[in-house]
Target: Chorismate mutase
Amino acid sequence: MTAITTEPTEKTGARTAEAAELISDARERIDALDDRIIGLVRERMAVSAVIQKERIASGGRRVNLSREMEILATYRDALGRPGTALAMTLLELCRGKI
Model:
């Protein structure tokens, strides 16, 4: 039987050493995933900049709204309503506010 302490273990909020260890390990994995996500977002921003530059240079508009609608639908379909907000944030990071 695992003993329950009255104070959280470490900074995890857990009440057992076992739970604290599991939480710490999971948080390390989340931190690594966040680093990868940030890297991918930066890569997406760079690719988007190339697209915008070429579109504008060819006489087009900076933003292609039909393409953005496709992206919003993709994220919404995959992640539900919060996916739409995530896609909007990505679009804003990649093209700025319109």
